Amino acid sequence: MSRGIKKWSEEAIARLQREGRGTGRGPSYTPWIFVTDLYSQGRTHELYSHKTGRQHQLLSDGERDAFFLLEWAQNVVDIREQFPLPRDITLELAQQIAVRHPYYPGTHVPAVMTIDFLVTKLVDGQETPEAFSVKVQEDLNKPSVVERLELERVVCHAIGMPYQVLVKERMPQVKLKNIRWIRDAQLDRDATEPFPGFYDEHMARMVQDIANRQFQGSLVDYCAEYDRRYSVELGTGLRIARMLLSNRTLVMDLNNAQPQTAPMASFTLTALQGRLRAVGGA
């Protein structure tokens, strides 16, 4: 579909359904709304996730921040954004609770309501769904927004999904900054390495190095020394450390506003070479 859905209609909705919008799981999931579907984009983001194996369609800065927090959580195994709710149920329940069902602007077509995120969590070995909507604080003072959120809550409850509202201004900003800093060290899908396995080799080497010696300085000092000792490009050691933080082999306090200058003693190694595993971390 070309950029910008200028006129919503039942035919347009049927076309999106035929395309498989709002269906699938993991890498095969297709959101109901893509960034390119929006006639006026505003601040939108397309982010690839190694956890889900696909590009995510995020329609605001608040959704981006919520996505970072959800993706980081170890009990979250799948994230489906712009997830459509069944229109027959949203229309019925809107009537029951006496709120106006949303319609597409300038039409008499009832909107396909979406929740910002449908997350699958692993709890005691069982997969459980949980729905999230993301708002900015000022929107919570608007009666129309509050009504819509209440309708979303009632619908999610009716179909067996716990529901939460995440407020952008209430999200932990230092933790978010650190998650983004760690996440940015990951290799892009089309990234090239100095040689195949370069980063895996150095991650294993750094794990052994940290395990076998004590370093009294900060993380950035240790990484600069690592670059010199192993004759790698400046900044490589810090990227390797962030990769180890990403896979939870190395754990830090995510509430530390200056992790690069934190002493190495404040970082915890959770696994050794040959048995690397993702554990711990908030």
Describe the structure.
- The longest helix is centred in the middle third of the chain and has 16 residues, at 143-158.
- The two termini are 40 Å apart.
- The chain is 34% helix and 17% strand.
- The protein has 2 domains: 10-171, 3-Layer(aba) Sandwich (Trna Endonuclease, Chain: A, domain 1), CATH 3.40.1350; 175-269, Arc Repressor Mutant, subunit A, CATH 1.10.10.10.
- It is an alpha+beta fold and 282 residues long.
- Helix 7 packs across helix 8.
- Strand 5 (126-135), helix 4 (143-158) and strand 6 form a beta-alpha-beta unit.
Mean pLDDT: 92
Radius of gyration: 22 Å
CATH class term of the largest domain: Alpha Beta
Low-confidence stretches: 273-282
Helical content stands at: 25-40%
Shape: elongated
Q: How many helices does DSSP assign?
A: 8
Q: What structural class is derived from the secondary structure elements?
A: alpha+beta
Number of strands: 8
Notable features of this structure?
Trna Endonuclease, Chain: A, domain 1; Arc Repressor Mutant, subunit A; single chain; 17% strand; 8 strands; alpha+beta; disordered C terminus; two-stranded antiparallel ribbon; 4-stranded mixed β-sheet; 282 residues
How is the topology of this model organized?
Blueprint (H helix, E strand, L loop, with lengths): L9 H9 L26 E5 L4 E5 L2 H12 L3 E9 L2 H10 L17 E10 L2 E10 L7 H16 L4 E5 L5 H11 L14 H15 L6 H11 L6 H11 L3 E2 L16 E2 L13
Parallel strand pairs: 5-6
Antiparallel strand pairs: 1-2, 3-4, 4-5, 7-8
